[in-house]
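To whoever is on call:

I kicked off a structure prediction for a single chain this morning and the downstream step that reads the tokens threw a length-mismatch warning. I double-checked the sequence; it's 204 residues and nothing unusual in it as far as I can see. Pasting both halves so you can look.
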Amino acid sequence: MTTRRLYLARHGAADAFGRLTDIGRRQAGLLGERLAGVPVDAVWHSPLPRAEASAHELARHLPDVPVTEAAELVDHVPYVPGAAETPRSWAGFFDGYDETEAASGQRLAEALVARFAKVPDPTPQGTGPDVNEVLVTHAYPIAWLVRHALDAPPCRWLGLNSANTALTVIEYRSGLPPTIVMFNDMSHLPADLRWTGFPEGIRP
């Protein structure tokens, strides 16, 4: 049975211009230390600078692992729900999204799933080895992949937030539904580096 494991991480803390901060670099480095014990085959990152910088920072702890941009990992709204699907607290969030923008975001979300959310294709010799990949991305793509793994309604990506460099792991195995191994795990971060990326009021 072939297994694909996606180690999903939101980029490190960034400033208002989308550049990785010193805190973000520390977070990414600690995530890299945690992943150093995993047989990582590839690190993929969003085209945005904060994700690219995070990927290269954590990859310092993963010698000889290729680090590559993947357009599907860019920050985007994966699905704009209709009025009947939208929770009251999100009612104004989608104001200004036109049909073209919504359709573009949904196509990108579908491409993300098609590329990463599956068991690796078999080799000519048959079933291939397990694959372990790190995806450095943003909160919304992570939420979409979690929603997809749970086979939840499209609107259920709403409210699934991830802290900076928190780790989410999803397994894809032949003939079985996806498994959420962990979600938003920050055990590699000291207390003062946890929960960045979340509103202040809900940090425990």
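Update from on-call: the warning came from a stale cache, not from the record. Cleared it. Sanity check on the structure: The longest strand covers residues 3-10.
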